Amino acid sequence: MKKKKHWYDYLWIWAIIYFALGFFNILFAWFGMIDFLVPLGIAIFGGNKFFCNHLCGRGQLFSKLGGDLKCSRNKSTPRWMSSKWFKYGFLIFFLTMFGNMVFQTYLVGAGASSLREAIKLFWTFRVPWGWTYTAGTVADWVAQFSFGFYSLMLTSLLLGLIVMVLYKPRTWCAFCPMGTMTQGICKLKNNGK
């Protein structure tokens, strides 16, 4: 019997639209905050990982590419990738990079630094991305956050695609920082009951 499709089974399209919009106009990067705030809200108020299991467009995209389109070797995920030390270590690293991005945004907003119109892939490689923004459209700090946030989102997408090809389609989910955070929140919330 075929599984009934729900509206949220098509959210993989959201992941493609998000990255395409950001490619042409960096200010669309702010829409990615939905993927940060909604899972945290569901974990805090619902005490579950409904977002990860049903609403994550990125996870669905990996399933679509790796599973349906057979772009994955479908090998077992290495145990260390889902180990507690790696998941929490990656979460700390990711939050450090996020904090640095917020600090850079603050510096631009405070006038201590100028807007850098570039995407940094893997937190290292600077990719000029000037065509996606017309200076002066919004406050420089708004644009700076856009460049930084899109860098984080694109880097995590690329990491997810790499591990999708090498291992199982949703290997990224084993150490996704949002998944690790929401899992921790759910444990705290459900242990308090």
Write up this protein.
This protein has 193 residues and is mainly alpha-helical. It has one domain. Helix content is 59%, strand content 4%. It has 7 helices and 2 strands. The protein has helices at 12-24, 34-46, 50-55, 57-68, 84-110, 140-166, 177-191; strands spanning 118-121, 125-128. The protein has a two-stranded antiparallel sheet. The chain is globular, with a radius of gyration of 18 Å. It starts with 11 loop residues before the first helix and ends with a helix. The mean pLDDT is 93.
Keyphrases for this structure?
193 residues; two-stranded antiparallel sheet; 4% strand; globular; mainly alpha; 7 helices
Helix content: 55-70%
Main sheet summary: 2 strands, antiparallel
- Detail the poorly predicted runs: none
| Structural class designation | mainly alpha
Number of helices in the DSSP assignment: 7
Beta-strand content bin: under 5%
- N→C terminal distance: 38 Å
Mass-distribution shape: globular
Order of helices and strands: HHHHHEEHH
Question: How confident overall, as mean pLDDT?
Answer: 93
Number of domains: 1
